[in-house]
Amino acid sequence: MATVFELDPRLAADTLHVGDGPLCRVLLMNDARYPWVILVPRVAGITELYQLTPVQRQQLLDESVQLGERLMTHFAGHKLNVAALGNVVAQLHVHHIVRFHGDDAWPGPVWGRHPRRPYGPDVASERVAALRRLIEIDDALD
């Protein structure tokens, strides 16, 4: 098992760094079709929830609930999909996807439905800054 937290290269390649919460690295999936944020506990070698300590599990839940509520309020979504699958990327990570009736994949899952549509550079910067404000991450600390 690893002793130093490292973000899986596939997550790094597919996302934009938003910042770090008390436990989790916060990432924006680089797909402009959906408001899609991923929490990755900064704990080395973790692939499953049960590998976290009870305190870490509670912190992950707290960060997830806070993120989900703020995303749904901000984007006025119809449903929030929260999932920790890990079939492609084993590192424990939790997806938070705001869904809308009639979005490109509705009502099915977003995975593998359409090719990703990356954010343009200006839109990406604006979305990351907005998420930092929304979830109260101080970008000066990153």
From TrEMBL:
GO terms for molecular function: hydrolase activity. It comes from the Bacteria. It holds the Pfam family HIT. Keywords: Hydrolase. The keyword Hydrolase applies. Residues 37-106 form the HIT domain. InterPro entries: HIT-like (IPR011146), HIT-like_sf (IPR036265), HIT_Hint (IPR026026). This is Diadenosine tetraphosphate (Ap4A) HIT family hydrolase.
